[in-house]
Design a protein that fits this description.
Blueprint (H helix, E strand, L loop, with lengths): L7 H13 L5 H12 L5 H14 L2 E8 L7 E7 L1 H20 L7
Antiparallel strand pairs: 1-2
Length: 108
């Protein structure tokens, strides 16, 4: 596995982008993660992770249509790149191999 420099939080955000598909924008990513992690996150932490991953080539983004509900502002919609999908699969495989190698008394 080549070095990806993808931190734990970035991995969670990236996986959430993949799960949400066309609804992968800042506020919805935050809602989904907060629900799954059962904790409060800041919009800034999500936006920082998204920006870092876009710079690293894990994400691409484009603006959606403006809406009255958002006061005419457009959402930035994120999409995982093929490279991101490959890296997520590699990380899943490594974790699965490690869990399978752990002594049975440690498994839950």
């Amino acid at each position: 596995m080549k070095k990806t420099k993808l931190g734990e939080f970035e991995e969670l955000v990236l996986m959430t982008v993949v799960v949400l598909q066309a609804d992968a924008y800042g506020v919805e990513i935050k809602r989904e993660l907060e629900s799954r992690l059962n904790e409060t996150l800041s919009v800034g932490s999500i936006q920082s992770a998204l920006k870092r991953m876009e710079e690293k080539g894990f994400l691409k983004s484009e603006f959606g249509e403006a809406s009255q509900k958002r006061g005419g502002k457009r959402k930035r919609i994120y999409q995982a790149t093929p490279h991101a999908h490959k890296v997520l699969q590699e990380m899943k495989d490594v974790r699965s191999q490690l869990w399978a190698s752990m002594p049975s008394m440690v498994r839950s």
